[in-house]
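Exercise 7. Predict the structure of Aminoacyl-tRNA hydrolase from Flavobacterium magnum.
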Amino acid sequence: MDAVKILSELQFKAVRSSGAGGQNVNKVSSKMVLTFDLPASGSLSEEEKALAIQNLTARLTTDNLLILNCDEDRSQLRNREIVTKRFLDIMTNALRVPKKRKPTKVPRSVIEKRIREKRSQSEIKQSRKRPEI
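Solution. The predicted structure, encoded as tokens:
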């Protein structure tokens, strides 16, 4: 994944923010909406696109668009930085290939230890019984 190429494909849109801010909320469009068209991306290979679509199914729209919002700050520029950083984090996690699990066998010593402990526990409980006459 080439971050510089991907950042050039992002589309930003400034929208009026909701919440605290007084009259500033009504006048200034500080909320940033980031849109990334995953299938049309030229910076990702086909394998990377398939992996990203698979890992981001819950976040994507029906057209496989990734839409992120940020209205944490009153500054439009700061919101743009935050949403861009969030996007890069999401994409790096989506493109990470998990390590293949190597199945392991339970060691013989562990099995023998468990059987020994079961046997000793059984002997302890047997010794609590009332003796037979």
